[in-house]
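Self-study notes.
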Amino acid sequence: MRRMLTVLAAGVPLAAAVYLPSASAEPRTTSTPFTCAAPSVKAPTGTKVESVTAVSQPGGTVQGTGILQGTVTDVPAYCEVTVTLTHSGADDHAKVRTWLPVSGWNGRFQGLGGAAYLAGDNNPGLATAVKNGYAAVTTDAGVDDALDTSWALNSQGQVNTALLKNFASRSQHEASVVGKEVVDAVYGKRPAYSYFLGCSTGGRQGYMEAQRYPDDYDGILANAPAVNWDEFEVATLWPQVVMNNEKTHPSSCEFNAFTAAAVKACDELDGVKDGLVNDPSRCDFDPRRLIGTKVVCEGKELTITAADAAVVRKIWDGPRTTSGKKLWYGVPIGADINALAGADPFPVPAAWTKLWVAKDPSLDLSTITYSRFTELFKQSQAEYDKVIGTDDPDLSAFRKSGGKLLTWQGDADQYIPAQGTVQYRVRVERELGSATKVDDFYRLFLAPGTVHCGLNKGDGTTDDLGALTAWVEHGKAPKTLPATLINADGQSVARDLCNYPRVLRYTGHGDPALASSFKCVLPSRH
């Protein structure tokens, strides 16, 4: 449970990081005196405003709610405006919360995404935004906490389509509309620049904004995005399906041994041993090389078997049909296999498969055969791609609006395979004509050795928001994304992350801990 909560917390945008405003973000003078009072709010199209409240908050230390928690200190005083919306016939109650700093507003606006089944921020992101001078908005979409899926099915056992639509797309758009209206009412002017920030579920929401509501934000920071939701959510049950069908359950120590061996074998593919695999797609480590190896686990000596190696091989390879057709990507080599292959299925894909796909809360996931897995995978695609897939490659309207989309994702992401994000980027290039055209407004950076939503959450750092604001406000497109990464030995190393498709390669000289010792090159295909 502790591991699960840590990872879910990593999906909450800005929960632990503090981004200071750039020099251009001077406090703006407003045309009306600041008053924390409930403004008159016009309901977004298709909604009705149920209530509007305003509460003056003293700031100080702000605690996160729900299972994700989180703490932000030294938060300045702010006004919290809550607008509750409902959709005709839906009987939903979506709360849109806007936090506005009493003084020092920098003229900017932030929309904040969620994590797992939490549709929005649980306070730390809002508090960090206010601390850095932003007015910020988030929405609960009418659903509850990160692992609460009680809203999935109605009393007749049918999918609650209204709440799913809220969670999938429309509530974040409505939050943007309402939040800006509140900012205008309180400060007497609309924000000069608007940004959306999110990771995981929040990253998917950012992509949805770009795809369906291209005028909502000037800049979108959408990291480790849960796009291709209908596919990867079922696909991430694959490790459990493999172990159950092969009747082989390697221990966590054995899984760690496979991962460590693969990283060691592929470490020097970039020209130097630095504890990082800079291009996992070139890593073809065969797990059968460990057959017969002794592993000490909790005081017991275990011997890795051919069956163990076969399970790992299938998990890395990813889900396939019984005839061998590839369905989706597997756990990346270098990522923690235990995250999805633990004693119990990871709750997010487990809930999706049981409730939304099978519509059977009592479904025993341990009984899913390979053929049944394929059926569930294809059913999820057929029913939910257009609802929550968030994989429409046509970003032409977002490009035309002048918007900028910036994404980073860890190559060692244990929950959302980075190759799904890469595939989406490639599809956008095909849709719009060339990589150059896409680079004008959408850039992807892959972080070696980095876990799900890892940067700025204890597994390295990067000033991604600073890079995005410089791109939006000054036209400085990021050629690289400077970062501090944590290598396999737990050491901090500096790297300038490369704009996809380029990867890092050692220059042949210099300290491997320094970014200057590496250059970005097109990947080798041999």
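Second protein, same conventions, sequence then structure:
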Amino acid sequence: MPYEPAPQPADKLDAEAVRTWSSLAVAALGRAREDIDAINVYPVADADTGTNLHLTAEAADRALGELFAQPAPGMTDATPGTTLAQAVRAYAHGALIGARGNSGTILAQLLRGVADVLGEEEPGERQPGPLLARALTRAAQEAYQAVAHPVEGTMLTVAAAAARAGEGAQDAGTAADVARAAYDAARAALAETPGQLAALGRAGVVDAGGCGVVAVLGALWQALSGEEPAAEPVPGRAVAVPRPPDPCEQPDDGPAYEVVYLLEASDAAVGELRERLDGLGDSLVVVGGEGLWNVHVHVDDPGAAVEAGVVAGRPYRIRITHFGDERRRARGERVQRAVVAVVPGEGLAGLCAEAGATAVLAPPGEVPAVSELVEAIRRAHAREVVLLPGGAELRATAAAAAEQARADGVRVAVIPTRSAVQGLAALAVHDPEGSFDEDVVAMTSAAGATRYGELAVAERQSFTSAGICQAGDVLGLIDGDVAVIGSGLTETAEAVLERMLGSGGELVTLVLGPEVPEALAERLEAYVQHGHLAVDTVTYRGGRHSAPLLIGVE
């Protein structure tokens, strides 16, 4: 059951107040989501700012709910023990882990700034009003620092105005007074954003991210006072919008991809990462700290952005999104059809993104959550979606995600791909201009006609369909079963290829793992050309997390 917030005393700033704030923020952003999406023109007119803010708030709220569901260390279920510091830290951490898009990433840093102050001391040590004012100021400061090139007229401006007003109201005493002053100032600042940012002025809209800040601050005031904000932070209610955005006026010359990932890295490595990513694209936001970061950037070379993360530390939960036709999205329209592909390696994710698909990274042995696939389907902004799960173990998750997306009005077809190479084969024949049914049939046929092989290294002695293997042996799998046991990658790969090509084929696809040298690909290409003159070979880099070698034969 969802948490039912209760009004708080005007000067009560504790864990329960944070929980109430979170619940109300999710509700406010949920109500405003579609309206905020509709006025999203900066930094990219991709009509998803409201959705990203709502998903980020939901992730933060889930983390807070999990904290309250478990007793604090050393305490029993009957002992109330969650402190303000624990609550705000869980709230901020949940937002960091679940941040979506540019706006969600900045919201996560705003919440981290709040946590950096409220997590230091309990309000009994200081008056709640001044403490909250200091937290809002820290939030605005940290958000500005997280953005590589801050721009006025955005949610940063709105947050800064709220912080200044909160500081001015702190002498009034109560936390509710500070929250009300911050909320009113944020609404006023939001109304001024079209005059500060040319893209907003041309479109005749206020900043979409700023609308989200107003919603969150309105929820904070409501949580502390019990009074409901009089207006929602959407056009025509909180502020007047002169006219709807004109998609014809939207520039279409920005980077083509959004890259987002979580990163485990040191502060020093992240400093170098910022410089490297800043040279690759724009809309760079890096938030977090204490070894865990959320990285967001818009680039034309998604592979280079991911590689920069690999150099800095350990990137994971990598999401690469192709912006597609921004003008249609600016009108709030969906594209007709899109492909969502689950892939095991970062290089494959970039490859799918370059082909126009929305990629979801799932390293071998990991199964993405249903919610992650549903979110990817939403990010595709399409009326029709073809979902490529990429593994037999992922089909149940893909089916559940498809069912949820269908409830949202999206037509979804799941193609039962059992390997990433089958997904590549299906993507190669994808025809977004043809009928949905014909496209699904063609993609299904291409995937089904592709035999798939894989090389893996045995971790222990075990029985296989090809005999007993020892730890360190190279296993050659064909269509999911061990067919060859060898001592080296090259000879095992050649044996697998020979068996797979024994029943014919026109194209061999090789996907190399991160540690496999190019010399192996050259050797295998020569092997295919020597024994099968009519067969072509293509080679890709699977990137980090992918198997040593994936083979597809069509």
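Instructor comment on the second fold: The chain has 19 helices and 16 strands.
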